[in-house]
Every structure is written in structure tokens, then in C-alpha cells.
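Memo to structure team: turn this sequence into C-alpha cells by end of day. - J.P.
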Amino acid sequence: MRWQNQTLDADDGALPGLGRADVVRTVRTPEFDGMTFHEVLCKSALNKVPPSSGLPFQWTINPMRGCSHACRYCFARPTHEYLDLDAGRDFDAQIVVKTNIAAVLRRELGRRSWRREPVALGTNTDPYQRAEGRYRLMPGIIRALTDSGTPFSILTKGTLLRRDLPLLTLAAREVPVSVAVSIAILDTDLHHGLESGTPSPRARLDMVAALTDAGFEVNVMVAPVIPYLTDSRSHLDELLGAIAAAGATSAVAFPMHLRGATRGWFLGWLAESHPALLRRYRQLYGRGAYVTPEYSAWLRERIDPLLLRHGLSRSADRGAAVGPAPEPDADPQLTLFA
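Reply from structure team:
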């Protein structure tokens, strides 16, 4: 792998989000069967978001690269190719862990030039994936942000966040803290097929309730909406109803996009599980990453009345949506998170 022989003073422009790093060791452990952790020392923790992104934050933190959630549709898969790893199985099982990220972050936040601009976590890979239970990076990150007076937001599918709920509650007394939970699927079989490494939808709904009880206004990302599989009125109505019942105050939903290597990984699953849909997907996505404008408009018209029915505001209206930067000429409201 192109990063395996790096030293701390090597210039690594080929690793966006990782920067210069030193591989300390590669670890395999029985409790994470089939997974490999590459422990690295990062030189920077804060990532600057391009001004053209149109996002409500200018900085992100990614404690890890790769994600054991194994979501077939994950927009971040192509970033693993920058490490000479593949965007399929390697993305799910070869996890790069920035073991010193909290200390590096604290140093960066202590600079006189730091303006305490909002920082987002969970915009690329999930900071509360299973490996966080082993490495416990997030408590140090949360404390560093809080101690520096820096507002921050977290987007996650990982119920491990509940471990840090007391810490987040204390942080929210000092700085603005925004929490969003991603729940896109209720169907058990579809959940196992598309996001096999994530906690169950029920467990995530319970986490929404716990966050609400702790005093947070929780936003839920019903994203991505997967055409012809999770876009039925009955599914969306049931899901949004469950989200509202759990205590969330807002939600946003938008269609799946299939960028780069993610397209092939997802369509490979579709060919095995729902081959009859392949032709419709080729028509809907053409050769690009995004659905047709007509489908986007149709989905808005379906979702907006359901949000109103269940008393959920649109998170975009509250400025709480988080996610990766949209690509040029894409509708930013529909591509904040995949």
C-alpha cells in the first residue's frame, strides 16, 4: 500500500483526510473477526471544507478511514482507493485508525489562529463504528472541542454514542452541540442486506429517545432513500412515524447517489438480490451518480406531507443537515449525505 512505508516527515498528498502519517502497527484481534486495524499517527486532525461546498460548517474530523458498518451505498467508499485498498471488502474490513487524533486536535485548537468555527464529525465515515469501542477516540475529541469553546455536530448510525451521552450533555452546557442519527431502513431483511454492520433500526430509534430524554433536539437523516426499495409511501410513513414517536424534532430525506466505485458495489448487490430492478436503475441514474431531477421532485412531493403529518420539521430549514460536500452542478439539498 502506498502509505505503508511513510515516515512522519513524508509529504503525503495522496491521502485526503489522513495527511502525513506513520503506520505504527497493523492489528487483528478475535473480537473483530475478519477485520484489520492499521494504527497510524496523524499530523493533523482538522480537515478544511472547500468554500464551494455550501455546507453549514467549514471543518470536519475523521478519526478513522474505512467503516465496519458495511453500508453498500456508502458515498465514502472511493476514498479507500487512495490508500491502494479496494472500495468493497477492504473498505468494510481494513480500518485506518488515527490513534493520536485527540492529542493532535487539542494542539490545533490551541493555536491563536483558531476561530472556534463549527466542526462536524461523521461526514465521511462513522466515528461511532464498532472500532470506537476498542480505541475510545471520541471522548478525547469531545473534550478537546469543548475545552476550546468549539461548537460541533455528530452524525452517526452507531449506538455506541450512548456511552458518551453524559460527556455530550456536559459539553452542550459549554458549546453548541448538534446530534443527528441516520435511519433509512426499517425492513429487517433489507437492513441486513444493505447495512449489515450497523445497529438495528430499533436500536437507533431507542438512541434517538435517549438523546431526546437527555435534552437534545435530534435530527434524523432518512438517507439515503433507495429507489424502488425504501421509497414507498407505506415505508416512509411508518419510518417517519417511528422517528417522531422516538422524540426527534426534525428529519430530512433524499435519494441515494452512487459516486465512483460505490456504484459498482451497490449494483453488484442489486443484481444478486433484486435483478429485476437493474434496468430501472440504469434508466434512473443513466451513467452518472445522481437520480433524474424528475425523481428528486417526485420524492420531495411524497416526503414533505409526511413530515408535516408527523410533526417533523425539515432539518435543512433548521441548518442542521450534515454530510459530504455536494459535487458540482448537483442539488446540495439532495446530496448532503448518501
